[in-house]
Amino acid sequence: MVNLELYRVFYTVAKCGSLTKAAQELYISQPAVSQAIKQLETQTGVSLFTRTHKGMVLSASGGKLIFRQVEEALSLLDGAERKLLEMNTTATGTIRIGATDSIFAHVLADKIAEFSQREPAVKLELISSTSPNTMNWLKEGKCDVAFLNLPIEDDNVCFCGTITHLSDVFVAGKKYGGLKDKVIQLSSLQEYPLLMIESDTVFRREFAKTVGALGVSFTPDIEVSNWDLMKKLVAKGMGVGCIPREYCQDELENGELFELNVAPRLPVRGVGIALAKNVPPSFAIKEFLSLFGNV
What we know:
Blueprint: H1 4-16, H2 19-26, H3 30-44, E1 49-52, E2 55-58, H4 63-87, E3 93-99, H5 101-118, E4 122-128, H6 131-139, E5 145-149, E6 157-166, E7 168-172, E8 183-185, E9 194-197, H7 202-213, E10 222-224, H8 227-235, E11 240-244, H9 249-254, E12 258-259, E13 261-263, E14 269-276, H10 283-289
Parallel strand pairs: 3-4, 3-5, 8-13, 9-10, 9-11
Antiparallel strand pairs: 1-2, 5-14, 6-14, 7-11, 7-12
Helix pairs in contact: 1-2, 1-3, 1-4, 2-3
């Protein structure tokens, strides 16, 4: 096996032309330098230096033959080491971010734009899918950081904290204006057409748990793949939708939708950050996550 330290000593002695000066540059003793040269000469089977009254001179049949190659090899290794060090001190490379379309649009968009302006050398790759799929991609190494609907129930990812909360509410359009200002029991919503997000989502899993604990069961009349479509259909009078208030704030403010006063209210959920377990985040990822406070 190649002992790189022996070649580093060889290169330093050749550059300095002196065992003493090489020892000073390497911060080791002169006997240690001399011993390293002897060990390398024994290992290669050739004399690498000629000892003269002026110092150490590369031998024509040994040291001179390998000096340039050793110099190039050490330079490449030093460059590789610098690149690794830069990864811990400079935001470069690519960050693959996984999240749902809604989390990208309503939670991450401003942060992504801010980070991109601050760190233009970092490429951001946005990977969109449901939270369960995103978590699987994180575990498989297909994304570097995941923003997931909580709760996370997987010990194979590293949960870093909650960055925002989501309040799931029931909304309707003008067609159901008669429901405004009324207190509606959760179970009574079964009397109206119900729109919900597709089944393989964290929202649906948690919704089923919550209403199930109250002895209520819902079968949606319409399942949609994204919240934007749900808002449009509900505004058109297709029924009552269940959606995070944070995702329909504009429509509630401009009157396209109104929030039903349902009792009991659904519990507040959250959006959290997850990293792959046992994979140290790069400096760039740490810088990106710093935008979200103490996570």
